Amino acid sequence: MTETTQHPTPAEPGAGAPGTGASGPGDPAARDGVRAPGRPRSERAEKAIINATLDLLAEESGVAGLSIEAVAARAGVGKTTIYRRWANKEALIVQALATMKGPLPEPSGASVREDLLALARVLRSERSRKRIRCFWNVVGAAEKHPELYARYRQDVIEPRRQVIRDVLRRGVRTGELRPDVDVEAAVTMLTGALAGRFPMETLPDDFPETVVDTLLRGIAAGAS
User: Fold this and answer.
1) What is the residue-wise DSSP string for the chain?
2) Which of 30, 39, 57, 133 has the largest count of CB atoms under 10 Å?
3) Measured in Å, how far apart are the chain's first and last C-alpha atoms?
4) For residues 217 and 177, what is the distance between their CA atoms, to the nearest angstrom?
5) Residue 177 forms beta bridges with which residues?
6) Which residues of 180-216 are buried (b: 16+ CB within 10 A; e: fewer)?
7) Residue 22 contacts residue 16 (beta carbons within 8 Å)
8) What pTM, to 2 d.p., does this model score?
């Protein structure tokens, strides 16, 4: 599946050398140090590539139907524009997926409940049909594309799960949670309830509170 061979194509009309942005060396604006108004071409191209990747990944064919050629055609760029930025389609998919998730908030440390609730609200806010389709298409392709799934977990999923792990482990140390808490199971319960539900479901506004309080009833100190 890994596409490691680059296939150079003729330069796109008007494109400058890599790293020069929208203006080439013969552009009067570049010589005068003045950039044309609007978003730089390189930034526009990157956004178009990311959007095309996510659109293709969310479609029924998922990972199998996504190729550098298909992304280039959907984004309206040449393949060399993509290969300048990403070595292969795995790297492109992982970065595209990462753009769909913002950073989790820094836990305040006030209490386990408050920190879990802040994290749960972010997880709920990130839900969308497109996001969940992309997620399940990557997860569903894990057997055929194990390297892609492993990279996605390592670069996108694990850093976010680690934030939740740290909150739970701190709760064990402070005595807010039971000392025998299965941290991995608790993380999966929280993320699965909020991020793993079917895309057609609309979660109520108070669902994060329901999930966190239900989880804490089983893992809080004194719970049986």
Assistant:
1) ---------PPPTT--STTSTT--TT-HHHHTT-PPSSS-HHHHHHHHHHHHHHHHHHSTTGGGG--HHHHHHHHT--HHHHHTT-SSHHHHHHHHHHTTSPPPPPP--S-HHHHHHHHHHHHHHT--HHHHHHHHHHHHTTTT-HHHHHHHIIIIIHHHHHHHHHHHHHHHHHTSB-TT--HHHHHHHHHHHHHSS-TTPPPPTTHHHHHHHHHHHHHBTT--
2) 57
3) 48
4) 10
5) 220
6) ebebeebbebbbebbbeeebeeebeeebbeebbeebb
7) yes
8) 0.72
Tokens of 200: 């057609």
